[in-house]
Amino acid sequence: MSGGAGTVTAAPVFILLGPPGAGKGTQARLLAERFGLVPLSTGELLRAAAREGTEAGRKAQAVMEAGALVPDAIVLAVLAERLARPDVSRGVILDGFPRTAGQAEALDRLLAGTGQRIDAAVSLEVDDAAMIGRISGRYACAACGEGYHDAFKQPSRPGVCDRCGGSAFARRADDRAETVAERLKAYHAQTAPLIAYYEGRGVLERVDAMGEIPAIAAQLGAIVERATA
Ligand code: AMP
Fold this sequence. Notes:
- By secondary structure, the chain is α/β, with parallel strands linked by helices.
- 47% of the residues lie in helices and 14% in strands.
- It is built from nine helices and eight strands.
- The strands form two sheets. It has a five-stranded parallel beta sheet, sandwiched between helices.
- Strand 5 and strand 6 form a beta hairpin.
- Helix 2 crosses helix 4 (72-83).
- The protein starts with 12 loop residues before the first strand and ends with a helix.
- Bound molecules: adenosine monophosphate.
- The site of adenosine monophosphate has 18 residues, from helix 2 and helix 3.
- Adenosine monophosphate (AMP) is lined by residues 20, 41-43, 46, 63-64, 67-70, 75, 96-97, 99, 103, 174, 183.
């Protein structure tokens, strides 16, 4: 965001909204690389907590495996810990947060405290029916997290990550078709209402996210450029 004369420019904050499979993670990484922002995925933070076996992580894991939303208190705690690291002063792209009205209000309070504002909340608009296919074929490099897909995006050298050269890949436990159906339900019941919330705040942008990854990235890039000009 740009400040007027005499004001300090605060680090930008972008939000990516959209159902599971809309491409939030992929686009957050591309935008982060292009603009030097920090991609911040609460799903990643919760999976890391689950791997570490912390109490919050164990609680979160059971909820994630059922395809439901993790309680706000746990999500806000892992997020606060991540936001305490100094790199976030470059600006952040929030991927998968906020997901409830309570989280959106908590984010507002947090930003009011740091003098930041939401530069744009982008809704990635997709057809639900296509999401199951998108999610069920996806996997990621175990070392760097680069995303791939059985049908849409294989590494250019089979078995070798394009980004880091790693050779181990993993699929998420909650990417099974039954769990994805629950995740879509949770999105529509609890997260989709945030589209109207951010529209009312005058920061909403809508992007058709059914097309090719580079074309969607170009539209998102234009939004970031406009918002930070
Ligand atoms: P994601 O990696 O964004 O697809 O998130 C995977 C799972 O983590 C979700 O299905 C939820 O169970 C949980 N999760 C991630 N972010 C949040 C959040 N902001 N609020 C509640 N649950 C979340």
